[in-house]
Amino acid sequence: MNPAAQLAGELIHARQTILPKRLQAPGPDATQLDQILRAAGAAPDHGQLLPWRFVIVPQEARGALGEAFAQSLMERDPAAQPGQAAQAREKAFRAPVLLLAVVRVRDDDPSITPNERVLSAGCAVQNMLLMATALGFGSALTSGKALQSHGLRQLFGLSVNEAALCFVNLGTASQRRPARIRPAVSAYVSTLAPGSAGS
To answer: Is the bond into 26 cis (omega within 30 degrees of 0)?
Structure first.
């Protein structure tokens, strides 16, 4: 195997999800975060629409995000206890670096489907995770029902054509799990047989 392919394989398989509660300071500094975000720009992008963007959530904005999380919980479950609301707020403060991935699912170019746009965004996110791994940082993607809430959409200024895809959490891993067993290729690959239906 050539060295570039070996390095790429090692990097891909070294990436693992580190829960945000296990991500501690330091997170990526400004230069490192720029490297991570530049990696996103190499994602496939049919039509060069740039149908995704990332919003950095600095520490001084985490309180507002925490309130959006708590409000979303109360809207879904008016009987939620104060402790549950506090736990929802706390989620905003876990990772040293936090970004929201936003995808524009439609615009003036209907020829590029929402699925293609989400796929492009997913590739951008994966590029970021791999670059973060290469720089020695842990990472995790987090989502949840709060992403669909009015309060969160309003906080991040999402348009009617945009969707909050996930949060990207970055930091130094305080603890890593043993590498998980990856699925065998045969578990997710098949070959189309000649003479299949539709021929």
So the answer is: yes
59 by Cβ neighbours in 10 Å (0-12 / 13-18 / 19+) ranks as exposed
Tell me the per-residue pLDDT of 8-67, one tens digit each, with 9 for 90 and over.
998 898 899 999 999 999 999 999 999 999 999 999 999 889 999 999 999 999 999 999
Nearest to 121 by CA among 177, 75, 164: 164
Instruction: Tell me the C-alpha distance between 33 and 27, whole Å.
Output: 9
Q: Is residue 87 part of a domain?
A: yes
Q: Which long-range contacts (CB under 8 A, 24 or more apart) does 182-186 make?
A: 182/13
| Residue 157 Ramachandran class (φ > 0 left, ψ -120 to 50 alpha, else beta) | left
CA angle, 54 as apex, 157 and 24 as ends, to 5°? 115
pLDDT at 67: 95
Distance in angstroms (rounded) separating the CA atoms of residues 174 and 3: 30
Residue with tokens 């909050």: 164
On whether residue 75 sits in a domain, the answer given is yes
In a domain, 96, yes or no: yes
Cα 33 from Cα 128, distance rounded (Å): 9
Within 10 angstroms of residue 45's Cβ, the number of other Cβ atoms is: 19
Residue type, position 119, single letter = L
Domain assignment of residue 40, given as a range: 19-174
